[in-house]
Design a protein that fits this description.
By secondary structure, this protein is mainly alpha-helical. Helices cover 72% and strands 0% of the residues. The chain is built from six helices and no strands. Helix 1 packs antiparallel against helix 2. The longest helix has 29 residues. The radius of gyration is 28 Å and the shape is elongated.
Amino acid sequence: MKPLKQRLAPLGLYLALAAALAAGGLYIVQRSFNLPLQISLGLIVVGMAAFALLDPARFRASLTGRQARYGSNALIKTLAFTGILIVINHLAFQYSPRWDLTEDRQHTLTSETIETLESLDQAVIAQAFFASQYPLSVENARKMLES
């Protein structure tokens, strides 16, 4: 029969897992580093520390065993792959070329329109109206009009 400390050790892991899920959910929903998220992150550390203190032999074995080596290798590869995808996504979003692939080029300015705009004496003013609940759309419209 295992001592009481060793039987209670997995509860620390369960606490850490529940706190990690809560922290992930809070961050996805709120997108801010507020007090509930900080408490959840603290509970992850507390749960892992409780497991390490209550059953140090199993904690040591989980960090130094064969499964830990292969698991850490898989984790590093997963993080590297995710990082590469994030960088590619950022670059594609930031520097995306715009092509008019319609059959009759209906979204492309004709040469006559460009000549007319260049021959104007005054600057062209574009006005756009947005709802206040979408502040990012104002910046996106400004970037689109300036390009």
